[in-house]
Design brief:
The protein is of the alpha+beta class and 73 residues long. It has a single domain, classed as Translation Initiation Factor IF3 (2-Layer Sandwich). The chain is 27% helix and 37% strand. It is built from 2 helices and 4 strands, in the order E-H-E-H-E-E. It has a 4-stranded mixed sheet, with helices on one face. The protein is globular.
Length: 73
């Protein structure tokens, strides 16, 4: 599986959301989007669920912790 990485740490809303939606429109069956943020993108979770995407969330990156959201169809 190939990752489309979006490092949106430091970006203000709606920038991260717009980047994810753009990547999802181009997503191929063997790809997933990996979003890195300074916080959990709770509004994104509802969008993903409403549109049939699967995702996993975890906190990663010691000593620079960040939220990592992996998204796939």
């Amino acid at each position: 599986m190939t990752d489309i990485v979006i490092d949106a740490r430091g970006l203000e809303p709606p920038g991260p959301f717009e980047r994810v939606v753009d990547a999802l429109t181009r997503l191929q069956p063997d790809e997933r989007v990996v979003l890195m943020l300074d916080r959990e993108p709770r509004p994104l979770f509802r969008f993903l669920a409403d549109n049939g995407y699967q995702y996993r969330v975890r906190w990663a990156g010691e000593p620079d912790p960040h939220c990592e959201v992996r998204i796939w169809e």
